[in-house]
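New to this. Please check both lines:
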Amino acid sequence: MTNMKKEKLSLNKRITSSKFSFTKNFLYFLIVPAIILIVGIVLLSTIGFNLGTDFTGKSVVKIYINNEDSFGEEVESYNLDSQEDKDAIYDKIELVLSENGVKIDSFRTTNMTISDYNVYLGQAVEVTYQNISDDLDSITAKNSDIRNSLVTAFGYSSYDDAISSIDYSPSTADFGWITGTVASIVFGYLVFAIYMAFRYNPSIFLVGIIQIAIDLFLTLGLISIFRLTINMSLAIILISTFLLSAFNLFYYYSKIKSNIKSGKFEKTKNSVIADETIKEITFNRVIIYIALLVISVIFSALAVEGVREVALGIMTSLIVTFYTSQFLLPSFCSVFYKERKKAKTVKTKLSKKAEKVSE
């Protein structure tokens, strides 16, 4: 038991022997995160996030597809059972919207009844797009222009009712979610850090702040660079990033503790211990990350509003947290790991008497 304590103390001393003992190629690994942060800050300062309909509001329109030749040969007929026709419809609508300065937010098949033309539950598409401003008059005027352009594009000049009126919905975003998300992450981190500090080492508090902050900022930077749509679901992405970052910290420190108990890495430099420890857990982490990535890819392929954006955001989180935990975390631990202070032993009268007897 005494030997085990001595080994633990000697290893702790080696871990703290080099105050700025960064791991191999650490500075090179910092280049990519630095570029992402700089580009992300520039984009946020200039064009901002790609805000979704939660923040901008939305407008919805239905368009009859004339798959039953309800209007004869004068109007082009499409069939939504054909992917080629579906793509052609999408491209036509996308062109009209882009010419009017807006873009498609969602596109789905539906049905439509036009009693004046004896059309009952005919094939149709429903298109949602972002509003261009918060001013109702501007939105109404723009929607009128878009509807007229769609009527012309689909050849419905004589059949105006084949395109529905455009329904307008204002922004539903409540910015209180930002405060709630930040509070959740801060509270979660404090609970996690206190637990880790007592179980493993107090240095986890500082390492955790650096690691989690970098992960969150890099995730936001990549979201900005990739122009992913930002809705209130961003809270899910940020909390997922925090959980992944915390998992990596826990896994890494638990392996460090395991190595200390086993006496491994005897007479080994601090930076080498850090590098070797991350190598030991890499394989298991790769398996976990691949599984999560596959799940995210599957969900990103679903044509469900909101799900795709969240899945893509979580994929971004996976990329960020794996990179930082693999190449930056070992150096942070190497530099900031501090040995626990040994408790002072208080000599009792009994122990003093025992010492005199032994002498």
